[in-house]
Q: What sequence folds into this?
């Protein structure tokens, strides 16, 4: 009887530990994904619609962001994940956006499961100190 009770308790503990571990959010070490949606890219006084974005967050902290408008525009930089997923992933823009010398910052938000892009925003200064502003929201069906 004591053996069965000990085995039952051990099994309950293992099941509880597995359930508890699945509730704790995982720290993101990399991410790659594309999202269709709606957004706006503003460069100086010019504005264009963003149809989709591709984001590649590499394990070494590098970030590549491609904005699909009528053209493809690239931004590069660094990323860091917050311990709180609701605060998003911080981006530091260090290049790209037309002439390769953009500098700025922003945030990418993933869906609650961490598998898809939900939203992207960043502000930077591009060529000739033109302000670059990106606002993008992914379609919910993704």
A:
């Amino acid at each position: 009887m004591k053996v069965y009770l000990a085995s039952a308790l051990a099994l309950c503990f293992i099941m509880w530990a597995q359930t508890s571990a699945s509730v704790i959010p995982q720290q993101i070490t990399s991410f790659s994904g594309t999202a269709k949606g709606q957004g706006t890219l503003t460069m100086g006084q010019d504005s264009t619609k963003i149809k989709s974005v591709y984001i590649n967050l590499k394990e070494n902290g590098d970030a590549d962001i491609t904005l699909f408008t009528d053209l493809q525009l690239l931004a590069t930089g660094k990323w860091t994940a917050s311990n709180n997923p609701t605060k998003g992933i911080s981006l530091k823009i260090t290049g790209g956006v037309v002439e390769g010398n953009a500098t700025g910052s922003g945030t990418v938000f993933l869906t609650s499961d961490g598998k898809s892009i939900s939203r992207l925003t960043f502000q930077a200064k591009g060529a000739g100190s033109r302000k670059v502003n990106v606002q993008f929201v992914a379609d919910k069906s993704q």
About this structure: The CA atoms of residues 30 and 59 lie 5 Å apart.
